[in-house]
Structures are given as structure tokens and as C-alpha cells.
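Repro:
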Amino acid sequence: MKVVGYLIWGMACFYVIFFALQPDEKKVVENTLEDCVPLQYDFKVISSYQNRYYNFEGRTKEGRIVKFKLPQNWDLDDVCSGDSIHKLAGEKEIYVIKPDTTIKVSLMAYGEEI
């Protein structure tokens, strides 16, 4: 009987941890918009690396060295040293300016454009 009780308790814990505690999609989209839309960027990339965030070291037009952690709600995998990143506050898009083209990258949540 103890084994059955432990199994039921384990299944209940699994349900709570993996389903009941997960934020709903609407709340995630709302938090993403609240966190990402007010930000403003305008710098040329010197170096970058990726972990939970896109981490960039760059140079502004004024010549200052800046460091930014951008959330992975934008797909910035193809950004290289020498590219520029530009975003105005209030917009949902980031512009990646490469030497020969400009790419508009939209804000994403759950793999879909917001």
C-alpha cells in the first residue's frame, strides 16, 4: 500500500511542478512586451557570445564601449562582429545592419511573432 501511496504522491508532485506552476502563454507574452519594447539599442558589435541571453559588447556612435544582454526573444544568432544593432524604444523590431544589407528581426514568443 505504501508503494501506491508514494506513486500517487509522486504523480501529484509531477503535475504541480510541470503543469500547474507554468505561466500561461498570455502572461509570458505580456511580460515579454513589458520587458523588451521600452528598450533602445544603437551600437556596432565588437564581440558577442550566447548563453541564456545574447551578450554583446559594442561601440556607440559617440565611441563609448557598451555591454548589452538581449533576451532570446529576438533571433540574433547570425549577428557577427562588425554588424550594427539598432532599435528604437517602443518598437517590436530590431534592425541588424550588415555591411551589405539590413535585416529586420521581430520580437518572438513561443516561436511566433508578437
